[in-house]
Amino acid sequence: MDSRQLRYFAAIFEARSLSRASEALHIAPSALSHHLANLEEELATALFVRKPRGMQPTAAGERLFGHARVILRAIASAERDVRDAGREISGEVAVGMAFSAVKTIGVPLLEKVACDYPKLRLALSESLSGATLMELMASEIDLAMVYNPPLDPRLRSQPLLEERMVCIGRADVIGDTEEPLAFDDLLDLPIILLRRGNSARAIVDDAALLKRLEARARLHLNSVQAITGSLLAGLGCVIGTRHLMREHLEAGRLMARPIVAPELSRTLCLCELSERPATYARETVRQLLMHFVLDAIARGLWDARAVDK
């Protein structure tokens, strides 16, 4: 199997037709069919079901396309990177961020790239940590800033900061006080929790504590906007950071109480796939991300502790 076979296969997969794929690649349909037949023979499995009006991928074809997309993207990235070595930083880097990260450093990052790296195409997406991690594992993004990522040999994770978690809600829900709240007492409140899975890990990484929280949660939401609206409506309280609801806390619409016995914290990590080849563009964006995180902490814009590692 070589890169040309994979490129031809991917074109057929996306076009669902030999003739349309041949037009896109400027290759005769017979030659394209020959390459596909050789690939299927090499893999000892059919990749498509031939139909009168097109090509339907088999389960093996669907699986191979997932690999082909990653491999072809890596090859293209490597070609650009080597070709542009010593020149102005260029290329495309896709970054996924948790809401808190976008809120704090998203705009400064975009401004810096637009001003200093005009040939660098930055794609920035915002989602909850679990979704961002899935996008990284699928190679849909190059770098991910997520909370409490799992230990996985496929990931290279660099801790950036640690945030202390608090209980946030209206005064009539969590009490009109800033006194600490014991974890056991927290369980008696109407808790709003992220849905089960990696997103919930962003709240607390302790499996035993998370299980207790999930068992008592009143609402399970995966939307920051829905969570904010629910808090303001008095539907419950959330375990989060002061940074998450800073504007509403400063305006007095919401209260925050520290959680004790035990204290809860979460760690923001910069993650990438271990086996992805390094590029100048990705390294530039990685350094910018770390710079803006540390700068936000130093300037008091992010209530967190930098992790020295």
TrEMBL record:
Keywords (alphabetical) are: Activator, DNA-binding, Transcription, Transcription regulation
InterPro entries reported in the protein's UniProt record: LysR_HTH_N, LysR_subst-bd, WH-like_DNA-bd_sf, WH_DNA-bd_sf
* UniProt keyword annotation of Transcription present: yes
Which intervals hold domain HTH lysR-type? 1-58
The signal peptide here is none
Record's family?
Belongs to the LysR transcriptional regulatory family.
Protein name, per record:
Transcriptional regulator
